[in-house]
C-alpha cells in the first residue's frame, strides 16, 4: 500500500485512484473523502477491505516542516562555515586550526546532499520557495534543502511528461 502521495485536491485523489486501478489486482470499491484524509476501500473477491487512510494534510505539513528545518539547519551550517573562513582569512586561526575544525566537526559545516524521496517533493519545494519570496537558482535550492540538483531536474522532467 502506498502512503506517500500528495493529495492537494479532489483531482489529485482521482488521478491517484486512476493510476492504481490498472496496477492493483483488486478493484477500488469506494473512496471516502474527509476534510483531512482519504479512506480507500478495495474489493478483493467481493470482500470489502480498507486499503488505507491517507492523511494528506498532515503528511504535507510534516514534509513541509522537514524541509523548513533542513533549510534552517543548512543556513546555520553555511553561516558557521563563513565565520570559520573569515577567522582563517583574518589570521585569527591558522591553517592547521582551520583544517582541524572542519575535520573534527563536519556536522557544523558540511551540507549533506540527498536524493529526492518523491517526485512530488519538487512541487512542494517550489511552493515553499514561492512563500520565501526570494529568487533562488537551482544550486541554491539544492543547497538549502539538501537535494541533489540532478534529482530536482529529473523530477521536473517526470512531472512535465
Could you characterize what this model shows?
- This protein is of the alpha+beta class and 161 residues long.
- It is 55% helix and 14% strand.
- The protein has 6 helices and 3 strands.
- Strands 1-2-3 form a 3-stranded antiparallel β-sheet, with helices on one face.
- Helix 2 (56-89) packs across helix 4 (121-132).
- It is elongated and about 50 Å long.
- The model is unreliable at 1-8, 23-32 and 44-51 (pLDDT under 50).
Write the layout of secondary structure elements.
Elements: H1 10-21, E1 27-33, E2 38-44, E3 47-54, H2 56-89, H3 95-104, H4 121-132, H5 138-145, H6 149-160
Antiparallel strand pairs: 1-2, 2-3
Helix pairs in contact: 2-4
Give a summary of the structure in a few sentences:
It contains six helices and three strands; from the N terminus they run H-E-E-E-H-H-H-H-H. By secondary structure, it is of the alpha+beta class. A three-stranded antiparallel sheet has the order 1-2-3, with helices on one face.
For the biggest β-sheet, the strand order reads: 1-2-3
Mean pLDDT equals 75
Number of strand elements: 3
Class per helix and strand makeup = alpha+beta
Report Rg: 22 Å
Strand content: 5-15%
- Provide the low-confidence segments as ranges: 1-8, 23-32, 44-51
Count of separate DSSP helical elements:
6
The string of secondary-structure elements, in order, is HEEEHHHHH
Shape: elongated
Helix fraction, binned, reads 40-55%
Biggest sheet statistics: 3 strands, antiparallel
Distance between the termini: 24 Å
Which characteristics define this entry?
161 residues, alpha+beta, 3 strands, disordered N terminus
